[in-house]
Each structure stands twice: as structure tokens, then as C-alpha cells.
Write a structure and sequence with these properties.
alpha+beta; 2 domains
Length: about 350
């Protein structure tokens, strides 16, 4: 694997979710009527910064709402949690309360993070309220369909709700956890190879270490690892092919170094093939949903013509396949990726 830092120079615009896309979301139970919107949460009067244990700014703020708003907001947020977790069954929030609401000043969607607590045992959970961005929703759909991970989210107009994805933040893992004595470095490297391959196939960009988490699961004879994306803002927008390859971000160098030290070219190819085979199985089982998603996304304007032109030329060179030159949009590129994988797996 190669490491050479990739930079994203321009902030991606937020693309609204079209009515056509909302129809798709309704078909697959991602659409909901929400009692609290993103704009409702933005109506706070003041806020104060949230600092970490060392006194450093976390880029999260704690909003202060008018007392007259609090009861209505908290009631609405509990209803949203019930919709997200239990199809609207309010019994699951009967003994829960909203503990706090945080606002992030960093990133494209400026999310709100809501902590909800069970007053019977103090067990808590999080969920996020964000401004709906079509790129992000497409990314979540592709993650649900083509990755080994399930995602849970809802959309209502220009508001989206996302379930919290549990895991150790990638940057924390890379700095202080990656070399734990009980961890098998080959297993970590294997997972990074698979994650890198999956991001390129689905055109999920900007997977720097703080945009994914590492899930660590003790097994009966070893410890298993899975890398999961948590930020889908850069779904098929950029024209630089390296943006879709986590190996090229300097923040991921500890993982790249692990791959170089513990894997051979032969094993790298083997792990790539394993991931591609898994993707083919998912394509076959979800082919109708994929077709519906393709039909919607190919009509959406989610990037620039210049980015499409640049990426399809890079893909043609990378895969040594001139057919990429005929792609008209990012959806065509992903579809060609999948067709090539299916042909490759059949060989």
C-alpha cells in the first residue's frame, strides 16, 4: 500500500433531497413525519463550548434554549427516538428522558447529538439530528445495501435522523490502541484492506480516521475488528480517485504501515477478492433495491461535470478499462464497478 496525503480543497455543497428521492425513501421505510425538525433545534439563543478532559475545544457546543421550548423539544425528541428504534412504539421511551443536546460546529451538516437516558438504570444512547443532504442519504443507502453493516436513519423534508454507530473513533484507535499486545495486527490490516476496497467500489470519499470507527469484538480464540464509516457527506462528489481510497490519507498512516509490515501483495489481493465476493452476494440479494436506487440517483445532480469527467478518466486508467470513459454520471461509475466485480468473481 502507498501513502501520500490527499487534500480536499473545497467544501462540498449540501444537496437537497428531491421529491423523487423521497418517493424511494417512502418505499423502503426511510421516510417519517417528525415532530421536531433540524431548524427547530437551531433556534437556541446561546451556547457554550464543550471541552475535553484536557481542556481542549471539542468543536461541540451545548445550546441553551428558552425554557418555554424545552418541554416541547424533549417530548418531540423522545417520539423521534421511538420512531427510529421501535417503529414509533412509545412504550420504549416511557422511562426515558433527554439528558442533553449538543451542537457540532465542524463539518458540512452541523449535526445535533442527542443523549437519551433510561431513568431506571441510567443506561444511555445517542442519536443525531442533521440537515438532510442527498449525498449523505445515498451514502447511507449504499452502506446498507453493499457493506456488511446495517444503518438506521429517517428523513423528513430537510431533516434527517441517524442512529449512533458504536465504535472506537479511528483517530483514537490509531494513536493509542492499534499496538495493544493482545491485538493481532494481521487482522487489523486485513480489515483495512477490505474497507479500502469497499470505499472505492461505492465511491465513499474522505475516510480519514475521524470519519470512521473501529469495532472491536472478542471472539472465542482471538479478537475481531471491523472498520465502519460514520460520515457519508463525501459520497461520490469529488473527482480525485484517491479521495475514495483511505490508504492515501495521512491520518490513516498507522493502518497503512500495519499493512506494509504484516501483509504480502498476495494476501492483499486475497483479502480484496474476499470483499469483492461478499459485495457480489449483496448485489444479488438486493438487486431490486439497487435498481431503484440507481434509477433515482442517475437523475440527481450531486456533483459537477468536471468532477465526473476527472473521475471517470482516473477510473479508466486505474482499472485499465476504457468503458469508464462512457459513464455519464457517478451512478454509472458505481454500476460499472459492480458489473466488473460480478464478471471478475465469475471467472
Amino acid at each position: 500500500m502507498e501513502i501520500k496525503d490527499v487534500k480536499i480543497y473545497h467544501k462540498k455543497p449540501v444537496f437537497p433531497v428531491s421529491e423523487n428521492f423521497h418517493k424511494y425513501l417512502r418505499t423502503y421505510q426511510r421516510d417519517a413525519r417528525l415532530p421536531v425538525t433540524y431548524e427547530d433545534l437551531k433556534s437556541f439563543t446561546e451556547s457554550y463550548p464543550i471541552l475535553d478532559k484536557e481542556g481542549k475545544d471539542t468543536l461541540w457546543e451545548s445550546p441553551i434554549y428558552a425554557q418555554s421550548q424545552m418541554e416541547e423539544l424533549h417530548t418531540g425528541l423522545k417520539i423521534i427516538y421511538a420512531k427510529l428504534k421501535a417503529s414509533g412504539n412509545l412504550r420504549i421511551v416511557q422511562h426515558k428522558y433527554i439528558d442533553k443536546i449538543d451542537y457540532c460546529t465542524f463539518g458540512n451538516t452541523h449535526p445535533f447529538r442527542v443523549r437519551i437516558v433510561n431513568r431506571l438504570n441510567d443506561v444511555y444512547d445517542y442519536f443525531y439530528v442533521k440537515k438532510a443532504d442527498a449525498s449523505r442519504v445515498f451514502g447511507l443507502e449504499l452502506e446498507e445495501i453493499l457493506s456488511p453493516n446495517q444503518v438506521n436513519y429517517l428523513v423528513d423534508g430537510d431533516t434527517m435522523i441517524e442512529e449512533h454507530i458504536v465504535g472506537l473513533p479511528g483517530d483514537v484507535f490509531n494513536k493509542g490502541m492499534i499496538h495493544q499486545a493482545e491485538y493481532n495486527p494481521t487482522r487489523i490490516a486485513k480489515e483495512f484492506v477490505k474497507f479500502n476496497e469497499r470505499c472505492l467500489v461505492t465511491l465513499l470519499g474522505d475516510m480519514r480516521s475521524y470519519n470512521f470507527v473501529v469495532q472491536i469484538t472478542p471472539d472465542f480464540d482471538d479478537i475481531q475488528f471491523r472498520i465502519r464509516a460514520i460520515d457519508f457527506d463525501q459520497q461520490f462528489y469529488e473527482g480525485n480517485i484517491k479521495v475514495y481510497m483511505p490508504q492515501f490519507f495521512k491520518e490513516n498512516y498507522p493502518l497503512v504501515k500495519l499493512c506494509m509490515e504484516h501483509l504480502t501483495e498476495k494476501t492483499v489481493q486475497q483479502y480484496k477478492q474476499e470483499e469483492l465476493s461478499s459485495i457480489v452476494h449483496r448485489v444479488r440479494s438486493e438487486r431490486h433495491r439497487l435498481t431503484d436506487l440507481r434509477d433515482v440517483s442517475c437523475k440527481e445532480e450531486l456533483t459537477t461535470k468536471e468532477n465526473i469527467m476527472k473521475l471517470k478518466k482516473s477510473m479508466a486508467v486505474y482499472y485499465k478499462n476504457p468503458a469508464y470513459e462512457d459513464c455519464k454520471n457517478m451512478t454509472d461509475i458505481i454500476e460499472l464497478n459492480l458489473k466488473n466485480i460480478i464478471r471478475q468473481v465469475k471467472l
